[in-house]
Amino acid sequence: MVSWATTQATPIMLSSHTYWNLDAFQNPETNLALNHTLYMPYGGTRIGVDSILIPNGTILPNQQGTANDFWSAPKTFGEGFQQDGIAGNCGAGCNGYDTCYITEREGYGPYNWRQAPVVTLASAFTGIQIDVYTDQDAFQIYSCNQQNGEFLTSLNETDI
User: Fold this and answer.
1) Under 8 Å between Cβ of 33 and 24
2) Of residues 81, 96, 153, 90, the one with CA closest to residue 121
3) Which of 20, 56, 73, 138 has a beta carbon 3.0–4.6 Å from 158's, enabling a disulfide?
4) Residue 120, Ramachandran bin (φ over 0: left; ψ between -120 and 50: alpha; else beta)
5) Is 106 inside any structural domain?
6) Per-residue pLDDT tens for 71-129?
7) Which domain CATH number covers 147?
8) What domain count does the chain have?
9) Residue 36 in domain
């Protein structure tokens, strides 16, 4: 391994990669998180990426009723896998989520990030709900598609 000291300002974003199965793998119908409901009321756009998930500088709208529409109403991950836009959504040949959603609160007027969650993830099976409050500008959702066919959920706030 080689390392060098930087001589200029170097952007870095350290983030945890927490994976959530709010059913604690106890749901007798599934051990997956596809039945979890996600709601991102400020997530109307996402960062465009190329086929290997490198950001390409575009901002893409999350059209209502498509796989990336978690902003117009809460829906389960499983619903998203049945909607337009899921093919290639997490890179070339990948149907799922590894997606950076922009947190667009400014259009709603003055806000305090401590008063409204940017993401709500819930399980109807256990009744467990996670509300995420953040002052960051974006949020990454990852559905673990390449993890032996298992789907979990990763939520990471991101400062873009």
Assistant:
1) no
2) 153
3) 138
4) beta
5) yes
6) 999 999 889 999 999 988 888 888 889 899 999 887 777 778 888 899 999 999 999 99
7) 2.70.98.10
8) 1
9) yes
